[in-house]
Amino acid sequence: MKKKIRKTLTTAAGIPVPDNQTSLTAGKRGPTLLQDHYLLEKLAHFNRERIPERVVHAKAAGAHGTFTVTNDITKYTKTRIFSKVGKQTEMIGRFSTVAGEKGSADTVRDVRGFALKFYTEEGNWDLVGNNTPVFFIRDAIKFPDFIHSQKRDPQTNRRSDTMQWDFWSQVPESLHQVTILFSDRGIPKGIPYMNGYGSHTFSFINAENERFWVKFHFKTQQGIQCFRQKEADTIAGEDPDYHTGQLFEAIERKEFPRWTLKVQIMPEKEADEYKFNPFDLTKVWSHKDYPLIEVGILELNRNPINYFAEIEQAAFSPSNVVPGISFSPDKMLQARIFSYTDAHRYRLGVNYERIPVNLPKAANVANTYQRDGFMRCDDNGGPGPNYEPNSFDGPVEDPDYNEPPLKISGSADRYEQKRGVDEDYIQPGDLYRLMSEDQQDQLISNIVGSLKKVPVEIQKKMIVHFSKADKSYGERVAEGLKSL
Ligand code: NDP
After folding, report:
1. Which one of 1, 277, 371, 447 is most buried, counting C-beta atoms within 10 A?
2. Of the listed 20, 45, 71, 130, which one is catalytic?
Protein backbone atom coordinates (compact mmCIF):
# COMPACT_ATOMS: atom_id res chain seq x y z
CA MET A 1 0.00 0.00 0.00
CA LYS A 2 1.32 3.42 -0.90
CA LYS A 3 2.24 5.43 2.18
CA LYS A 4 0.15 8.60 2.47
CA ILE A 5 2.44 11.63 2.48
CA ARG A 6 1.55 13.75 5.48
CA LYS A 7 2.13 17.47 5.57
CA THR A 8 4.92 18.88 7.71
CA LEU A 9 3.67 20.55 10.90
CA THR A 10 4.50 24.25 10.96
CA THR A 11 4.12 27.37 13.09
CA ALA A 12 1.31 29.74 12.16
CA ALA A 13 3.88 31.55 10.00
CA GLY A 14 4.55 28.33 8.07
CA ILE A 15 7.93 27.50 9.61
CA PRO A 16 8.52 23.72 9.89
CA VAL A 17 8.37 22.37 13.44
CA PRO A 18 11.10 19.83 14.33
CA ASP A 19 9.56 18.55 17.59
CA ASN A 20 5.93 18.79 18.83
CA GLN A 21 6.46 16.62 21.93
CA THR A 22 9.53 18.02 23.68
CA SER A 23 10.22 21.62 24.61
CA LEU A 24 13.64 23.24 24.31
CA THR A 25 15.44 23.20 27.66
CA ALA A 26 18.82 24.17 29.07
CA GLY A 27 20.17 20.78 29.97
CA LYS A 28 18.27 17.56 30.53
CA ARG A 29 16.44 18.83 33.62
CA GLY A 30 15.46 22.25 32.29
CA PRO A 31 14.53 25.09 32.68
CA THR A 32 12.69 25.79 29.43
CA LEU A 33 14.24 28.35 27.11
CA LEU A 34 12.28 31.45 26.12
CA GLN A 35 13.75 30.88 22.70
CA ASP A 36 11.27 28.04 22.12
CA HIS A 37 8.96 30.32 20.17
CA TYR A 38 6.92 27.38 18.93
CA LEU A 39 6.06 26.41 22.52
CA LEU A 40 5.19 30.05 23.30
CA GLU A 41 2.98 30.34 20.22
CA LYS A 42 1.24 27.04 21.01
CA LEU A 43 0.41 28.08 24.60
CA ALA A 44 -0.51 31.66 23.74
CA HIS A 45 -2.90 30.60 20.99
CA PHE A 46 -4.50 28.02 23.24
CA ASN A 47 -5.12 30.70 25.88
CA ARG A 48 -7.07 32.68 23.30
CA GLU A 49 -9.22 29.87 21.86
CA ARG A 50 -12.43 30.99 23.56
CA ILE A 51 -14.34 33.90 22.13
CA PRO A 52 -17.02 35.62 24.22
CA GLU A 53 -19.93 33.29 24.70
CA ARG A 54 -23.29 34.56 23.51
CA VAL A 55 -25.04 36.01 26.59
CA VAL A 56 -28.17 34.16 25.46
CA HIS A 57 -28.44 31.15 23.11
CA ALA A 58 -24.88 30.02 23.92
CA LYS A 59 -25.52 26.26 23.55
CA ALA A 60 -26.47 25.15 20.07
CA ALA A 61 -26.33 22.61 17.31
CA GLY A 62 -26.44 23.54 13.65
CA ALA A 63 -26.47 22.23 10.13
CA HIS A 64 -26.58 23.31 6.51
CA GLY A 65 -29.62 22.76 4.36
CA THR A 66 -31.82 23.73 1.47
CA PHE A 67 -35.04 25.65 1.13
CA THR A 68 -37.35 24.64 -1.74
CA VAL A 69 -40.39 26.66 -2.84
CA THR A 70 -43.55 24.56 -3.23
CA ASN A 71 -46.24 27.25 -3.57
CA ASP A 72 -46.43 30.56 -5.42
CA ILE A 73 -46.71 33.54 -3.04
CA THR A 74 -45.37 36.15 -5.46
CA LYS A 75 -48.56 38.20 -5.12
CA TYR A 76 -47.37 39.05 -1.59
CA THR A 77 -43.62 39.40 -2.02
CA LYS A 78 -41.07 40.10 -4.72
CA THR A 79 -38.29 38.48 -2.68
CA ARG A 80 -36.11 36.30 -4.88
CA ILE A 81 -35.99 33.32 -2.53
CA PHE A 82 -39.75 32.73 -3.11
CA SER A 83 -39.77 33.81 -6.78
CA LYS A 84 -40.54 30.44 -8.42
CA VAL A 85 -42.00 27.09 -7.43
CA GLY A 86 -39.14 24.57 -7.34
CA LYS A 87 -36.48 27.20 -6.64
CA GLN A 88 -33.84 26.07 -4.13
CA THR A 89 -31.72 28.24 -1.84
CA GLU A 90 -28.85 27.15 0.40
CA MET A 91 -29.20 27.92 4.08
CA ILE A 92 -27.71 27.23 7.49
CA GLY A 93 -29.59 26.77 10.77
CA ARG A 94 -28.55 27.08 14.40
CA PHE A 95 -30.79 25.66 17.14
CA SER A 96 -30.10 26.64 20.72
CA THR A 97 -31.33 26.73 24.27
CA VAL A 98 -31.59 30.24 25.70
CA ALA A 99 -30.50 30.52 29.30
CA GLY A 100 -27.79 27.88 29.72
CA GLU A 101 -24.12 28.37 29.06
CA LYS A 102 -22.19 26.71 26.25
CA GLY A 103 -21.68 23.47 28.21
CA SER A 104 -25.21 23.24 29.63
CA ALA A 105 -27.59 20.35 29.04
CA ASP A 106 -29.80 20.23 25.96
CA THR A 107 -32.87 18.62 27.52
CA VAL A 108 -33.83 21.42 29.89
CA ARG A 109 -37.14 23.29 30.01
CA ASP A 110 -36.32 26.33 27.94
CA VAL A 111 -37.35 28.14 24.78
CA ARG A 112 -35.29 27.04 21.77
CA GLY A 113 -33.66 29.41 19.30
CA PHE A 114 -34.49 28.64 15.66
CA ALA A 115 -32.04 30.81 13.71
CA LEU A 116 -31.89 30.51 9.93
CA LYS A 117 -29.64 32.16 7.35
CA PHE A 118 -30.73 31.90 3.72
CA TYR A 119 -28.02 32.66 1.16
CA THR A 120 -30.21 34.46 -1.42
CA GLU A 121 -28.89 36.14 -4.56
CA GLU A 122 -29.80 39.52 -3.10
CA GLY A 123 -27.88 39.01 0.14
CA ASN A 124 -28.40 36.94 3.25
CA TRP A 125 -31.84 36.74 4.82
CA ASP A 126 -31.67 35.83 8.51
CA LEU A 127 -34.85 34.72 10.25
CA VAL A 128 -33.81 34.58 13.89
CA GLY A 129 -36.77 32.95 15.56
CA ASN A 130 -37.71 30.57 18.34
CA ASN A 131 -39.68 27.34 18.70
CA THR A 132 -42.57 29.37 20.14
CA PRO A 133 -44.73 31.92 18.32
CA VAL A 134 -44.61 34.49 21.15
CA PHE A 135 -42.17 35.90 23.72
CA PHE A 136 -42.19 36.81 27.42
CA ILE A 137 -42.10 40.58 26.91
CA ARG A 138 -43.21 43.07 24.31
CA ASP A 139 -40.77 45.90 25.04
CA ALA A 140 -37.00 45.38 24.75
CA ILE A 141 -36.30 47.77 27.61
CA LYS A 142 -37.20 44.83 29.86
CA PHE A 143 -34.95 42.34 28.09
CA PRO A 144 -31.76 42.55 30.21
CA ASP A 145 -33.86 42.30 33.41
CA PHE A 146 -35.78 39.34 32.05
CA ILE A 147 -32.58 37.50 31.09
CA HIS A 148 -30.94 38.28 34.44
CA SER A 149 -33.92 36.60 36.11
CA GLN A 150 -33.28 33.46 34.01
CA LYS A 151 -29.55 33.37 34.66
CA ARG A 152 -27.58 32.87 37.87
CA ASP A 153 -28.29 34.37 41.26
CA PRO A 154 -25.65 37.05 41.95
CA GLN A 155 -24.77 35.52 45.32
CA THR A 156 -25.29 31.77 45.04
CA ASN A 157 -24.28 31.55 41.36
CA ARG A 158 -27.18 29.10 40.88
CA ARG A 159 -30.22 29.43 38.68
CA SER A 160 -33.18 30.46 40.76
CA ASP A 161 -36.87 29.57 40.46
CA THR A 162 -37.58 32.54 42.72
CA MET A 163 -35.92 35.04 40.38
CA GLN A 164 -37.84 33.66 37.40
CA TRP A 165 -41.28 33.59 39.00
CA ASP A 166 -40.67 36.92 40.74
CA PHE A 167 -40.14 38.54 37.34
CA TRP A 168 -43.03 36.73 35.63
CA SER A 169 -45.43 37.50 38.49
CA GLN A 170 -44.85 41.22 37.90
CA VAL A 171 -44.95 41.08 34.11
CA PRO A 172 -48.34 39.58 33.24
CA GLU A 173 -47.78 39.80 29.50
CA SER A 174 -45.31 36.92 30.01
CA LEU A 175 -48.12 34.49 30.94
CA HIS A 176 -48.68 33.31 27.35
CA GLN A 177 -45.05 32.31 26.87
CA VAL A 178 -44.86 30.90 30.42
CA THR A 179 -47.86 28.67 29.61
CA ILE A 180 -46.11 27.37 26.48
CA LEU A 181 -42.81 26.90 28.34
CA PHE A 182 -44.38 24.80 31.11
CA SER A 183 -46.62 22.89 28.70
CA ASP A 184 -45.67 19.52 27.24
CA ARG A 185 -43.85 21.42 24.46
CA GLY A 186 -41.38 22.99 26.91
CA ILE A 187 -38.83 20.19 26.40
CA PRO A 188 -38.65 18.97 22.79
CA LYS A 189 -37.44 15.43 22.15
CA GLY A 190 -35.03 16.88 19.65
CA ILE A 191 -34.49 19.68 17.18
CA PRO A 192 -36.32 17.81 14.36
CA TYR A 193 -39.39 17.45 16.59
CA MET A 194 -40.23 21.08 17.20
CA ASN A 195 -41.79 23.86 15.17
CA GLY A 196 -39.97 27.09 14.41
CA TYR A 197 -41.53 30.55 14.29
CA GLY A 198 -40.32 33.94 13.07
CA SER A 199 -42.35 35.09 16.11
CA HIS A 200 -42.31 38.81 15.21
CA THR A 201 -44.56 40.34 12.63
CA PHE A 202 -42.47 41.10 9.56
CA SER A 203 -43.54 42.65 6.25
CA PHE A 204 -43.65 41.47 2.66
CA ILE A 205 -43.47 43.90 -0.26
CA ASN A 206 -44.63 42.79 -3.69
CA ALA A 207 -43.66 43.87 -7.19
CA GLU A 208 -46.39 46.57 -7.11
CA ASN A 209 -44.78 47.95 -3.94
CA GLU A 210 -47.74 46.90 -1.77
CA ARG A 211 -47.00 46.00 1.85
CA PHE A 212 -48.42 43.00 3.75
CA TRP A 213 -47.72 42.06 7.35
CA VAL A 214 -46.47 38.49 7.71
CA LYS A 215 -45.82 35.82 10.35
CA PHE A 216 -43.55 32.85 9.55
CA HIS A 217 -44.26 29.31 10.82
CA PHE A 218 -41.98 26.29 10.22
CA LYS A 219 -44.07 23.21 10.97
CA THR A 220 -42.07 20.08 11.68
CA GLN A 221 -42.69 17.19 9.26
CA GLN A 222 -41.35 14.77 11.90
CA GLY A 223 -44.28 15.63 14.18
CA ILE A 224 -44.07 17.37 17.54
CA GLN A 225 -42.46 15.07 20.10
CA CYS A 226 -41.57 16.09 23.61
CA PHE A 227 -39.97 14.77 26.76
CA ARG A 228 -41.69 14.59 30.10
CA GLN A 229 -39.77 16.29 32.88
CA LYS A 230 -38.44 13.10 34.47
CA GLU A 231 -37.11 11.60 31.23
CA ALA A 232 -35.48 14.90 30.33
CA ASP A 233 -33.82 15.18 33.74
CA THR A 234 -32.32 11.70 33.39
CA ILE A 235 -31.01 12.40 29.90
CA ALA A 236 -29.57 15.76 30.99
CA GLY A 237 -27.38 13.82 33.42
CA GLU A 238 -26.50 10.96 31.10
CA ASP A 239 -25.91 12.88 27.89
CA PRO A 240 -26.03 16.67 28.20
CA ASP A 241 -25.43 17.00 24.44
CA TYR A 242 -28.37 14.76 23.53
CA HIS A 243 -30.04 17.08 21.01
CA THR A 244 -26.72 18.04 19.45
CA GLY A 245 -25.76 14.41 18.91
CA GLN A 246 -29.21 13.40 17.74
CA LEU A 247 -29.28 16.02 14.96
CA PHE A 248 -25.72 15.26 13.83
CA GLU A 249 -26.30 11.51 13.72
CA ALA A 250 -29.65 11.80 11.91
CA ILE A 251 -28.01 13.85 9.16
CA GLU A 252 -25.07 11.41 8.96
CA ARG A 253 -27.64 8.62 8.44
CA LYS A 254 -29.26 10.78 5.73
CA GLU A 255 -32.47 11.09 7.73
CA PHE A 256 -32.85 14.74 6.87
CA PRO A 257 -35.24 16.70 9.11
CA ARG A 258 -37.79 18.79 7.25
CA TRP A 259 -40.16 21.61 8.04
CA THR A 260 -42.98 23.10 5.96
CA LEU A 261 -42.80 26.88 5.86
CA LYS A 262 -46.20 28.50 6.13
CA VAL A 263 -47.09 32.17 6.41
CA GLN A 264 -49.98 34.20 7.75
CA ILE A 265 -50.64 37.32 5.71
CA MET A 266 -52.38 40.48 6.88
CA PRO A 267 -53.03 43.30 4.36
CA GLU A 268 -51.28 46.48 5.55
CA LYS A 269 -54.44 48.45 6.37
CA GLU A 270 -56.03 45.69 8.47
CA ALA A 271 -53.42 46.20 11.19
CA ASP A 272 -55.24 49.36 12.35
CA GLU A 273 -58.51 47.51 12.86
CA TYR A 274 -57.32 44.15 14.21
CA LYS A 275 -58.73 43.24 17.62
CA PHE A 276 -55.37 43.76 19.29
CA ASN A 277 -51.99 45.18 18.35
CA PRO A 278 -50.68 42.80 15.65
CA PHE A 279 -47.12 43.95 16.41
CA ASP A 280 -47.27 42.74 20.02
CA LEU A 281 -44.79 39.87 20.41
CA THR A 282 -46.73 38.34 23.32
CA LYS A 283 -49.62 37.46 21.00
CA VAL A 284 -50.32 35.25 18.02
CA TRP A 285 -52.63 36.00 15.13
CA SER A 286 -55.49 33.55 15.25
CA HIS A 287 -55.29 30.93 12.51
CA LYS A 288 -59.02 31.42 11.95
CA ASP A 289 -58.49 35.11 11.17
CA TYR A 290 -55.30 34.58 9.15
CA PRO A 291 -55.04 30.99 7.86
CA LEU A 292 -51.65 29.43 7.19
CA ILE A 293 -50.50 29.54 3.56
CA GLU A 294 -47.86 27.03 2.45
CA VAL A 295 -44.64 28.39 0.97
CA GLY A 296 -42.02 25.65 0.84
CA ILE A 297 -39.84 23.05 2.54
CA LEU A 298 -36.80 23.55 4.70
CA GLU A 299 -34.47 20.54 4.85
CA LEU A 300 -31.31 20.17 6.93
CA ASN A 301 -29.01 17.87 4.98
CA ARG A 302 -25.34 18.61 5.64
CA ASN A 303 -23.39 18.59 8.88
CA PRO A 304 -20.73 21.18 9.54
CA ILE A 305 -17.17 20.01 8.93
CA ASN A 306 -15.91 22.27 11.69
CA TYR A 307 -18.27 23.38 14.45
CA PHE A 308 -16.44 26.56 15.44
CA ALA A 309 -15.99 27.81 11.87
CA GLU A 310 -19.51 27.10 10.70
CA ILE A 311 -21.81 27.23 13.74
CA GLU A 312 -20.08 29.16 16.54
CA GLN A 313 -18.99 31.86 14.11
CA ALA A 314 -22.34 31.98 12.32
CA ALA A 315 -23.80 35.41 13.06
CA PHE A 316 -27.55 35.75 12.62
CA SER A 317 -29.28 39.10 12.82
CA PRO A 318 -32.90 40.18 12.33
CA SER A 319 -31.47 43.25 10.55
CA ASN A 320 -30.56 40.99 7.61
CA VAL A 321 -33.71 41.26 5.54
CA VAL A 322 -33.61 41.17 1.73
CA PRO A 323 -35.69 43.07 -0.86
CA GLY A 324 -39.33 41.99 -0.59
CA ILE A 325 -39.04 41.16 3.14
CA SER A 326 -38.83 43.83 5.81
CA PHE A 327 -39.54 44.94 9.36
CA SER A 328 -42.64 46.01 11.25
CA PRO A 329 -43.26 48.41 14.14
CA ASP A 330 -42.85 45.51 16.64
CA LYS A 331 -40.81 47.14 19.43
CA MET A 332 -38.92 43.96 20.21
CA LEU A 333 -37.98 43.49 16.56
CA GLN A 334 -36.80 47.09 16.33
CA ALA A 335 -34.48 46.56 19.31
CA ARG A 336 -33.18 43.24 18.01
CA ILE A 337 -32.16 44.99 14.78
CA PHE A 338 -29.58 46.74 16.97
CA SER A 339 -28.68 44.17 19.58
CA TYR A 340 -27.75 41.21 17.38
CA THR A 341 -25.30 43.12 15.19
CA ASP A 342 -23.89 44.74 18.32
CA ALA A 343 -23.40 41.33 19.95
CA HIS A 344 -21.58 40.00 16.87
CA ARG A 345 -19.26 43.02 16.71
CA TYR A 346 -18.38 42.34 20.36
CA ARG A 347 -18.14 38.57 19.93
CA LEU A 348 -16.52 38.22 16.51
CA GLY A 349 -15.24 41.68 15.65
CA VAL A 350 -16.27 44.42 13.29
CA ASN A 351 -15.59 42.30 10.19
CA TYR A 352 -17.85 39.42 11.29
CA GLU A 353 -19.83 39.49 8.04
CA ARG A 354 -16.59 38.63 6.16
CA ILE A 355 -16.19 35.31 8.02
CA PRO A 356 -16.85 32.60 5.39
CA VAL A 357 -20.06 31.20 6.96
CA ASN A 358 -21.57 34.69 7.04
CA LEU A 359 -20.55 35.70 3.51
CA PRO A 360 -23.27 35.81 0.86
CA LYS A 361 -22.72 32.88 -1.49
CA ALA A 362 -23.73 34.59 -4.74
CA ALA A 363 -20.81 36.25 -6.50
CA ASN A 364 -20.34 40.01 -6.08
CA VAL A 365 -23.22 40.53 -3.69
CA ALA A 366 -21.38 42.25 -0.85
CA ASN A 367 -20.04 45.54 -2.21
CA THR A 368 -19.39 48.04 0.55
CA TYR A 369 -17.08 50.95 1.33
CA GLN A 370 -16.24 49.43 4.71
CA ARG A 371 -12.48 49.12 5.05
CA ASP A 372 -9.90 47.98 7.57
CA GLY A 373 -10.75 47.05 11.17
CA PHE A 374 -9.58 44.08 13.19
CA MET A 375 -9.24 40.79 11.34
CA ARG A 376 -9.94 42.07 7.85
CA CYS A 377 -8.85 38.91 6.05
CA ASP A 378 -10.04 39.39 2.47
CA ASP A 379 -8.50 41.83 -0.05
CA ASN A 380 -10.05 44.77 1.87
CA GLY A 381 -11.54 46.23 -1.29
CA GLY A 382 -8.23 45.96 -3.18
CA PRO A 383 -7.24 49.10 -5.08
CA GLY A 384 -10.89 50.19 -5.52
CA PRO A 385 -12.18 53.53 -4.26
CA ASN A 386 -12.94 53.64 -0.52
CA TYR A 387 -15.34 56.60 -0.64
CA GLU A 388 -18.59 57.43 -2.37
CA PRO A 389 -19.55 59.27 -4.57
CA ASN A 390 -16.53 58.57 -6.76
CA SER A 391 -15.62 58.65 -10.45
CA PHE A 392 -13.95 55.23 -10.47
CA ASP A 393 -16.79 52.75 -10.95
CA GLY A 394 -17.32 52.01 -7.27
CA PRO A 395 -20.68 50.51 -6.23
CA VAL A 396 -23.66 52.89 -6.21
CA GLU A 397 -27.04 52.96 -4.52
CA ASP A 398 -30.15 51.77 -6.37
CA PRO A 399 -33.37 53.66 -5.55
CA ASP A 400 -35.41 50.76 -7.00
CA TYR A 401 -34.87 49.07 -3.64
CA ASN A 402 -36.69 51.79 -1.70
CA GLU A 403 -39.63 50.44 0.27
CA PRO A 404 -43.07 52.04 0.09
CA PRO A 405 -43.35 54.74 2.77
CA LEU A 406 -44.76 53.51 6.07
CA LYS A 407 -47.29 55.82 7.71
CA ILE A 408 -46.44 56.39 11.36
CA SER A 409 -48.29 58.78 13.64
CA GLY A 410 -48.39 59.78 17.29
CA SER A 411 -46.48 61.85 19.79
CA ALA A 412 -43.17 60.67 21.14
CA ASP A 413 -43.76 59.42 24.66
CA ARG A 414 -43.13 56.44 26.90
CA TYR A 415 -46.54 54.85 26.57
CA GLU A 416 -47.38 53.04 29.74
CA GLN A 417 -47.63 49.29 29.40
CA LYS A 418 -50.94 48.58 31.04
CA ARG A 419 -50.18 45.62 33.24
CA GLY A 420 -52.58 42.82 33.87
CA VAL A 421 -55.22 44.08 31.46
CA ASP A 422 -57.66 41.41 30.33
CA GLU A 423 -56.06 41.28 26.91
CA ASP A 424 -52.92 39.68 28.34
CA TYR A 425 -54.95 36.76 29.67
CA ILE A 426 -57.04 35.90 26.60
CA GLN A 427 -54.49 33.90 24.62
CA PRO A 428 -52.93 32.01 27.56
CA GLY A 429 -56.51 31.05 28.47
CA ASP A 430 -57.24 29.97 24.86
CA LEU A 431 -54.12 27.84 24.91
CA TYR A 432 -55.01 26.24 28.24
CA ARG A 433 -58.51 25.44 26.97
CA LEU A 434 -57.30 23.85 23.73
CA MET A 435 -54.98 21.46 25.60
CA SER A 436 -56.05 17.86 26.08
CA GLU A 437 -56.58 16.63 29.64
CA ASP A 438 -53.15 15.01 29.62
CA GLN A 439 -51.52 18.24 28.38
CA GLN A 440 -53.28 20.23 31.12
CA ASP A 441 -52.11 17.71 33.73
CA GLN A 442 -48.53 18.05 32.52
CA LEU A 443 -48.77 21.85 32.50
CA ILE A 444 -50.01 21.99 36.09
CA SER A 445 -47.49 19.43 37.30
CA ASN A 446 -44.57 21.25 35.58
CA ILE A 447 -45.64 24.62 37.02
CA VAL A 448 -46.15 23.23 40.52
CA GLY A 449 -42.76 21.45 40.35
CA SER A 450 -41.05 24.79 39.89
CA LEU A 451 -43.38 27.18 41.74
CA LYS A 452 -43.21 25.13 44.93
CA LYS A 453 -39.63 26.34 45.37
CA VAL A 454 -40.52 30.04 45.57
CA PRO A 455 -41.85 32.25 48.39
CA VAL A 456 -45.63 32.02 49.02
CA GLU A 457 -46.16 35.73 48.17
CA ILE A 458 -44.93 35.10 44.63
CA GLN A 459 -46.99 31.90 44.34
CA LYS A 460 -50.10 33.89 45.26
CA LYS A 461 -49.44 36.52 42.59
CA MET A 462 -49.02 33.80 39.98
CA ILE A 463 -52.25 32.06 40.99
CA VAL A 464 -54.10 35.34 40.37
CA HIS A 465 -52.63 35.48 36.87
CA PHE A 466 -53.41 31.83 36.06
CA SER A 467 -56.98 32.34 37.33
CA LYS A 468 -57.49 35.38 35.14
CA ALA A 469 -56.51 33.27 32.12
CA ASP A 470 -58.86 30.46 33.14
CA LYS A 471 -60.47 29.85 36.50
CA SER A 472 -59.63 26.17 36.49
CA TYR A 473 -55.99 26.91 35.49
CA GLY A 474 -55.55 28.97 38.68
CA GLU A 475 -57.51 26.57 40.87
CA ARG A 476 -55.51 23.57 39.75
CA VAL A 477 -52.13 25.25 40.36
CA ALA A 478 -53.36 26.36 43.82
CA GLU A 479 -54.53 22.81 44.62
CA GLY A 480 -51.26 21.37 43.38
CA LEU A 481 -49.26 23.66 45.65
CA LYS A 482 -51.55 22.99 48.63
CA SER A 483 -51.32 19.22 48.31
CA LEU A 484 -47.52 19.15 48.59
P1 NDP B 1 -55.77 27.05 16.50
O2 NDP B 1 -56.63 26.00 17.11
O3 NDP B 1 -55.91 27.35 15.06
O4 NDP B 1 -54.23 26.70 16.73
C5 NDP B 1 -53.78 26.16 17.91
C6 NDP B 1 -52.29 26.09 17.83
O7 NDP B 1 -51.81 25.70 19.10
C8 NDP B 1 -51.76 25.10 16.85
O9 NDP B 1 -50.82 25.78 16.05
C10 NDP B 1 -51.04 24.05 17.70
O11 NDP B 1 -49.88 23.63 17.09
C12 NDP B 1 -50.70 24.88 18.91
N13 NDP B 1 -50.49 24.17 20.16
C14 NDP B 1 -51.10 23.08 20.65
N15 NDP B 1 -50.57 22.74 21.85
C16 NDP B 1 -49.62 23.64 22.12
C17 NDP B 1 -48.71 23.85 23.18
N18 NDP B 1 -48.70 23.03 24.24
N19 NDP B 1 -47.85 24.88 23.12
C20 NDP B 1 -47.86 25.71 22.06
N21 NDP B 1 -48.68 25.57 21.01
C22 NDP B 1 -49.55 24.55 21.04
O23 NDP B 1 -55.97 28.32 17.42
P24 NDP B 1 -55.62 29.87 17.32
O25 NDP B 1 -54.87 30.26 16.13
O26 NDP B 1 -56.91 30.60 17.57
O27 NDP B 1 -54.71 30.02 18.61
C28 NDP B 1 -55.17 29.57 19.88
C29 NDP B 1 -53.98 29.44 20.78
O30 NDP B 1 -53.07 28.52 20.19
C31 NDP B 1 -53.20 30.73 20.95
O32 NDP B 1 -53.65 31.47 22.03
C33 NDP B 1 -51.79 30.25 21.14
O34 NDP B 1 -51.54 30.07 22.52
C35 NDP B 1 -51.75 28.89 20.47
N36 NDP B 1 -50.95 28.94 19.23
C37 NDP B 1 -51.39 29.70 18.18
C38 NDP B 1 -50.60 29.87 17.08
C39 NDP B 1 -51.01 30.81 16.00
O40 NDP B 1 -50.11 31.24 15.25
N41 NDP B 1 -52.26 31.17 15.89
C42 NDP B 1 -49.32 29.15 16.95
C43 NDP B 1 -49.00 28.32 18.07
C44 NDP B 1 -49.79 28.26 19.17
P45 NDP B 1 -49.87 22.33 16.08
O46 NDP B 1 -50.90 22.61 15.04
O47 NDP B 1 -48.49 22.32 15.54
O48 NDP B 1 -50.19 21.15 16.93
Report:
1. 447
2. 130
